[in-house]
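User: Before I run my own analysis I want an independent prediction to cross-check against. Here's the chain; please return only the C-alpha cells and, at the end, one sentence I can use as a sanity check.
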Amino acid sequence: MNVGLFIPCYVDQFYPHVAVATLRLLEAVGCTVHYPLTQTCCGQPMANSGYAYLTGGCDENFIRNFARYDYVVSPSGSCTLHIKQHLHGQNEANEAHATAIRSRIYELTEFLTDVVKVTDLGSLMPKRTTPIRVGMHQSCHGQRGLHLSQMSELMAPPYSKPVQLLQQIEGIKLVKLDRPDECCGFGGTFCVTEEAVSAKMGKDRVADHLRQGVDYITGVDVSCLMHMEGILKRMQSPVQVKHIAELLTNTL
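Assistant: C-alpha cells:
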C-alpha cells in the first residue's frame, strides 16, 4: 500500500512526535509511507468560521500533494472529515482527483481496522513494562462524522475502532467513563469565540477521567487532547494526554 501521510498543521507545529508515531505505526503494518513536503493546512479553520470560499488554494494544494497515492491517512478525525466532505477542485480534472481522494482518505484508526484489518498489533510493537490506566476520549468529528465509535444515545450494539486497537496492546487498562462520548468543548474556533463555555465543557470532560483514576487520556484528535492538556496543566494534574498513535507504538 502506498500511503500519503497527511499531518495537520497544528500537529506539525506543536506535536510532531504524533506524526512520527503515526509513521512508525503505518510502517509496522507494512505500508510504504510518503510525506509530501509541500502540504499545508487543509482549510478547515477557515471553512468552520464561515470563509469556505477562501479555501480554494488549500484544496488545490492538497490535490497536488495527495492525488497520486493509494490511500491518504491522517492522525486527525476532524481534518480527515473536512477533506472527506469538502475537498473540491477548481476545474474538471482536479474535481475528478478530489472525488477520488475523498473516497480514499482515512483517519488512522479506521485505516488500521477497516483497510489493513489489524488484529494483533501488540505483536508488532515494543512490550510495555508498566501497566497504565487509560481514558479514551471519543472526539465528536470522529464519532459522529466518521463513525469511529457508536453514539451512546442510539439503541444499537456498541463498538469503537480506537478501543479495538488499544485492546490489542498488553498493559493498557481502559477505564469506563461516566459519559463516554461527551464533547470536550474544543470545537476549533468555538474555543475562541465561546471561550468560557469551551473551558467549562473541557473541565467537565477532564473531571470524568480524573474520577476514574486515569494515568493518561487518549484520543484520535490532538486538537481535543490539546484542549484538555491545557486544563490539566492549569490544575497541576499529573495526568498526561497522549494521541492514540503514541500509546499503540508505546512511545510515551
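Sanity check: Strands lie at 2-5, 32-34, 71-74, 105-107, 132-137, 172-174, 216-219, 240-243.
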